[in-house]
Specification:
By secondary structure, the protein is mostly helical. The chain has helices at about 5-25, 30-40, 45-70, 75-95, 105-120, 135-155, 160-170, 175-200, 205-230, 235-255. It has one domain (about 5-255). The chain contains ten helices and no strands. α5 (about 105-120) runs parallel beside α7, α5 (about 105-120) packs antiparallel against α10 and α7 (about 160-170) packs antiparallel against α8 (about 175-200). The protein is globular, with a radius of gyration of 17 Å.
Amino acid sequence: MNWWIILAVTFFAGMGAGLGTGFAGMSAAAVISPMLITFLGMEPYTAVGVALASDVLASAVSAWTYGKNGNLDIRNALVMLAAVLVFTMTGSWVSSVVPGAAMGGFSVFMTFLLGIRFIVRPVMVTAGTQGDLDRSTRIRQSLIWGALIGFVCGFVGAGGGMMMLLVLTGFLGYSLKMAVGTSVFVMTFTALTGALSHFAIGGLPDWTILTLCVFFTLLWARIAAVFANKADPKTLNRAVGVVLVVLGIVILGFQFLE
């Protein structure tokens, strides 16, 4: 295949995934996978593995950037992470036993709706007012929601980042910056676990494509995270909304092309 085509596809895939991760804690799999499958003819299982691997460093550098700016609730993130990991495995097992691809467009639809939501109704909670929940209630709800998010991720194979953003801002009272920072911290470990399992089962992908996707996703995630932490809440909400709406439309377009 022409090297310039590979470079162009991985650049735009990494840009979309990086912006989605750095701005909104969105999983890179939602953007990279359909592009690699559609334009490079990559086998779907391998494409998801590449996307998850690209997510690891992008989420890690985003989490570090948000944490450095005081926008990461690491204690609560660890609670949610434990629940997500356990129930992701449970959901994966259930999906292997019960055929169910009916929710295939779930994460794309949620991405589009969340984008509209952040544009029309911004999350204006500040870092100092994380809602009215006490610590024990927040931990209990994090376990419950983490279990649900993990199960859906394992069963459907997508939607984790968007579900976490929705739960953290809509139910746990987080500011948008704190929600994204906490979400990308959790995603660092879930993406690493998913990537290793994909490569162990399906084998290693093309190293050139993998390296380029990881690099471009990391680059754009870092740029987006730096901008997001400096932006005022209303500007950030609009930026996140626009990114999510555009990505939702683009991903839907890729699905029609497949």
